[in-house]
């Protein structure tokens, strides 16, 4: 297994070959999420709500850890483009150490803060709170392994080894799908069983990634690097990590608003997000592809290839987002019924899909341009855009709920997605015309 040079060959062919494995991996993860939600949904809306409440804290941990994933991806892909083996080794080893440190910290953090966090959400359902914390306890050690799975996936993508990352992800997803019904229903562990199945699948994936990574690169964990190297990685990844953290914190505050509308509304949001992931997980695959593609070509100073690659990614993303828009607008109740039988939860979920369905194209635009900026080593731009308009969801939700009830929260999410998509595209074009990043506008 060797690194793949993304600076050579026909742009469309290279980008599509790079994107398809990442998108396939996203589809696999999406498939698992949907099946998992389907299985948990059969336990009732309270079971879905228990996972929904606990998942926000896991999201906080993932958002902060993204700092290491993003910075490692940027620095390693640039080093590969420059063919600088020494820099490549340095940032891989540093990223590995930081990732391990973050994983151990958050494994303990979610257990310590779990109960007061769930109480803060004011779910007003003792069973949901107990099951939510049980899920967090199981998810605690899982975080260490999931952190490394995210990190290895990004590193493999930087080397152009998307197919191997896909293969390993597929093994984890299939294993998780097989274990879910066994633990949830056969062993009658319910929500706790879903967490155990995810833990085992993540452990297997991490071990496989570690074995295969030895064929691609060697980690020098004995080498000593100055504090400046660690700080550089943290500073580089911090903007995007802050963006994701804010997104999660805003989601938590919105969830607190949603709890006032009952556990059916909490369950509806969780189900709606899983269905909406049909769009953002696949488009997220394009984000990863364009980040790796742009990263290597930026390191090699192939600026025209960057322009063409971003154009191809935008076209693919828009076409796919239009398809999901039609799906959400035409079949919202049918999609909701796949996961839950409660009539009120189905209705709330359907309204969520109708409202956010109108903005899938703008979400795709934002995600793809974010990948381009990250590949260029300019994460502050998309981070700033996202932070401003994601934070705006809170006052918008407060205002809209006075007129529309819980649908006002869905509307605040949609409005922010439209604004983020428009501004991300505008800034990319503006930077191109100014020649700041030596990339012509699309």
From TrEMBL:
Topology class, membrane: Multi-pass membrane protein
Location within or outside the cell: Cell membrane
Pfam families with a match to the protein in the record: MatE (PF01554)
Entry's transmembrane regions: 12-35, 55-76, 96-113, 133-152, 164-185, 191-211, 278-300, 312-332, 352-376, 409-428
InterPro entries: MATE_fam, MATE_MdtK, MdtK-like
Superkingdom of source: Bacteria
Alphabetic keyword roster: Antiport, Cell membrane, Ion transport, Membrane, Transmembrane, Transmembrane helix, Transport
Primary role: Multidrug efflux pump.
Family, similarity comment: Belongs to the multi antimicrobial extrusion (MATE) (TC 2.A.66.1) family.
PANTHER family: FMN_FAD EXPORTER YEEO-RELATED (PTHR43298:SF2), MULTIDRUG RESISTANCE PROTEIN NORM-RELATED (PTHR43298)
Protein name from the UniProt record: Probable multidrug resistance protein NorM
Upper taxonomic lineage: Bacteria, Bacillati, Bacillota, Erysipelotrichia, Erysipelotrichales
């Amino acid at each position: 297994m060797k690194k793949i040079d993304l600076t050579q060959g026909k742009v469309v062919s290279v980008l599509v070959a790079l994107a398809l494995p990442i998108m396939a991996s996203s589809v696999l993860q999406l498939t698992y999420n949907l099946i998992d939600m389907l299985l948990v949904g059969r336990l009732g809306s309270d079971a879905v709500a228990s996972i929904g409440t606990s998942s926000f804290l896991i999201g906080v941990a993932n958002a902060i850890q993204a700092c290491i994933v993003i910075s490692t991806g940027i620095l390693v892909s640039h080093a590969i483009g420059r063919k600088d083996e020494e820099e490549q080794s340095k940032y891989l080893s540093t990223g590995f150490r930081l990732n391990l440190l973050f994983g151990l910290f958050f494994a303990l953090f979610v257990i310590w803060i779990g109960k007061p966090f769930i109480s803060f959400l004011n779910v007003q359902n003792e069973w949901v709170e107990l099951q939510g914390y049980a899920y967090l306890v199981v998810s605690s050690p899982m975080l260490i392994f999931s952190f490394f799975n995210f990190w290895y996936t990004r590193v493999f993508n930087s080397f152009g080894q998307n197919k191997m990352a896909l293969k390993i992800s597929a093994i984890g997803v299939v294993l998780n799908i097989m274990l879910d019904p066994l633990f949830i229903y056969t062993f009658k562990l319910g929500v706790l069983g879903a967490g155990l199945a995810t833990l085992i699948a993540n452990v297997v994936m991490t071990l496989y990634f570690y074995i295969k990574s030895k064929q691609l690169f060697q980690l020098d964990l004995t080498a000593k690097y100055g504090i400046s190297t660690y700080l550089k990685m943290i500073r580089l990844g911090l903007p995007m990590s802050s963006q994701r953290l804010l997104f999660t914190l805003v989601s938590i505050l919105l969830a607190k608003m949603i709890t006032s509308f009952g556990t059916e509304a909490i369950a509806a949001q969780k189900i709606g997000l899983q269905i909406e992931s049909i769009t953002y997980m696949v488009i997220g695959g394009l984000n990863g592809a364009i980040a790796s593609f742009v990263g290597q070509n930026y390191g090699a100073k192939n600026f025209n290839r960057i322009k063409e690659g971003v154009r191809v990614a935008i076209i693919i993303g828009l076409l796919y987002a239009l398809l999901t828009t039609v799906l959400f607008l035409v079949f919202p109740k049918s999609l909701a019924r796949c996961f839950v039988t409660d009539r009120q939860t189905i209705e709330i979920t359907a309204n969520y899909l109708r409202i956010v369905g109108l903005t899938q194209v703008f979400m795709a635009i934002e995600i793809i341009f974010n990948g381009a900026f990250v590949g260029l080593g300019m994460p502050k731009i998309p981070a700033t855009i996202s932070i401003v308009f994601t934070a705006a969801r809170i006052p918008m939700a407060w205002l809209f709920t006075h007129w529309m009830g819980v649908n006002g929260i869905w509307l605040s999410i949609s409005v922010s997605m439209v604004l983020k998509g428009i501004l991300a595209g505008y800034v990319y074009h503006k930077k191109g015309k100014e020649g700041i990043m030596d990339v012509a506008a699309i």
